[in-house]
Amino acid sequence: MLGWFDANLVSILNGFAIGALLFVLAVGLSIVFGMMDVLNLAHGAFFLVGSYLAVSFVAGDSWGGFLTALGVAAVVGLLAGAVLSGMTEPLARRPILDQALLTLGISLVVAEVLSIVYGNDVRSVSPPPGLDGSVDVAGSAYPTYRLMLIGVGLVLALVVWLVVERTSVGALVRASVADREMVSAMGIDNRKVKVAVLGIGSMLATVAGVLAAPVYGARPGLDETILLLALVVVVIGGLGSIRGALIGALVIGQVESLGRALLPDLASFILFGTLALVLIVRPRGLFAGKVAHS
Amino acid sequence: MLEVRGLRSGYKRSTVLQGVDLDVPDGRVVGLLGRNGVGKTTLIHTLMGLVTPSAGSVHLDGADLTGRRPDVVARAGVALVPQGRRVWAPLTVTEHLALAARRGRGRGPWDVPRVIALLPRLGERLRHTAGQLSGGEQQMLAIARALLTNPRLVLMDEPSDGLAPAVVDLIGEAVAGMKAEGVTLVVVEQDLHLAFAVADEIAVMDKGRVVHRSPTLEFRSDSSVAAALLGVA
Q: Which residues form a coiled coil (chain A) (predicted)?
């Protein structure tokens, strides 16, 4: 067992890095869907916008470009989420599918614009100075940047969890997931909550895109790959549940990484096999946050 | 205080309310009775703004609330204690009270200590989540949540639903306590004992309209109306 662990340590660490990224992505998607029934299929496109912002701003051997990319991505994400919230508002009383189609359309437009601006080649981004080397982890060389990614992802996860579970704003979000009609019956305007949550959720997506750029680079199609993984995490974790998104992200991170390393031909089967297995055992996800009412 | 005129409302394929007229005077408690499916809950939901009316009007102290969003209706002074309680299961009692007081703080006499004085059981459960509470405690929490918005009018939909008789008595006491504080109430109730105990006046709905209105004492002494409209002796 220990021997196996040693042999696959790099894959396991990679799994944590992917898991941390997926959590930051999926938590926004999950809360927005659990709370407002808005399935934001543009989430992957927002991620890719972040990655291309890193391509644009990261240049040479300095932290300046990387931090600028993070700042710009945060602002762009916030604004994009707020605009998206406004665009879905006229569809608020229509079925979920109508809103999903709107966000799918937006994601296609965004992806096309990115492809026009940046071309169809795979673009790579170098990690900021000091993080571009590798460190020795139990005898294996492991990229420093990925270790930092795991750390940043876990810190972000902790911050999001604390805000949602321990603050009054978080209580408002959880109440909205449980029963948003009763929140509005308290005199609170749901639409403002939706703008804020979509804005912050989208910001997490663009920021995750920047953070991931030194690992995955930026290329057409990355948005769809990422969206699919995030959706699997949300479905496995349960809609609107922070804990579910965290556990789901860590599980899918390992499934992706170990699956690709050990059984490369079957990686996709293992991913969706995990999804199917969870849905058979727990049809509403591991930690469904949404409570049905009459 | 509340003036409802010719209110028509319902859901996609069916009009449930066929022209409701209802007046609720300031400081009074109106018990709203009627058989299942006559539109009591639809009326409550339409008054709160959860269902959009197709015709008619709703005024509160002269302000037009017809077809307004629920948060606007709530800020105008209407609070809902819904059927099935609909507390937020993952939130603690304290979080419920804080969230409810968010908009209502300072707009009237109700604050957290005063609500807990009316519903002392909640004071012992502050750290519990709503999902851990008994049905009666959840109902008290739903009442507390409504009061903390400092409403002028409280709409209660089947407060005794699914509760044991001893707990129903506690809810009745809470309603009496609210009434003593001058809260105006519309109480939808199947439990005639509770309705008679708290209501000053009785309104009876049938087929989407209010078809009868009388003071509670008068209604109780004339059993023919109850027999005809409610199917009880």
A: none
Nearest residue in A to B131, CA atom: A291
Residue keyed to tokens 């609070």: B79
Q: Is B79 on the interface with A (CB under 8 A)?
A: yes
Residue B233 has pLDDT above 80, yes or no: no
| Residues A157, A25: Cα–Cα separation, whole Å | 10
- What is the number of structural domains in chain A? 1
Q: Is residue A131 part of a domain?
A: no
Q: State whether residue B86 sits within 8 Å of chain A by CB.
A: yes
Q: List the CATH number of the domain containing A216.
A: 1.10.3470
Specify if A236 maps to a domain.
yes
Average pLDDT (A238-263) is: 87
Q: What residues does each domain of chain B span?
A: 2-230
Q: What is the pLDDT of residue A293?
A: 37
Does the structure show a pLDDT above 70 at A227?
A: yes
Residue owning tokens 């299929």: A41
A292, part of any domain:
no
Let me know: does B209 contact B18? Beta carbons within 8 Å. yes
Compute the nearest-CA separation of B99 from chain A (Å): 7
Instruction: Check whether A200 has a pLDDT greater than 80.
Output: yes
**Which of A72-86, A154-168, B82-96, B147-161 is predicted with the least confidence, judged by mean pLDDT?**
A154-168
* CB-CB under 8 Å, B103 with A186: yes
Cβ neighbourhood burial of A119 (10 Å; 0-12, 13-18, 19+): exposed
Q: Which amino acid is at B34?
A: G
Tens-place pLDDT, residues B99-141: 999 887 878 889 999 999 999 999 999 999 999 999 999 999 9
| Mean pLDDT of the region B59-87 | 96
**A216 by DSSP, 3-state: which?**
helix
In the numeric block, the tokens 């405690």 are attached to: B137
Q: What is the pLDDT of residues B138-165, one digit of tens each?
A: 999 999 999 999 999 999 999 999 899 8
Contacts of B185 (CB under 8 A, 6+ apart): B28, B29, B30, B153, B154, B155, B156, B175, B178, B179, B198
Asked, for residue A246, whether it belongs to a domain, the answer is yes
> What CATH number labels B2-230?
3.40.50.300
* Domain that includes residue A17, residue range: 12-120+136-281
Residues 6+ apart with CB under 8 A from A226: A25, A44, A47, A48
Are the Cβ atoms of B84 and A184 closer than 8 angstroms? Answer: no
B66 Cα to chain A: minimum distance (Å): 15
Task: Decide if A201 contacts A35 (C-beta within 8 A).
Answer: no
CA A93 vs. chain centroid, Å, equals 26
Query: Which pLDDT score, from 0 to 100, does residue A279 have?
Result: 83
Would you call B10 an interface residue with chain A, using a CB distance cutoff of 8 Å? Answer: no
B23–chain A nearest CA distance, Å: 22
Interface contact A190-B91, CB threshold 8 A: no
Question: In whole angstroms, what is the distance from residue B24 CA to residue B175 CA?
Answer: 16
Tell me if chain A has a CB within 8 Å of the CB of B11: no
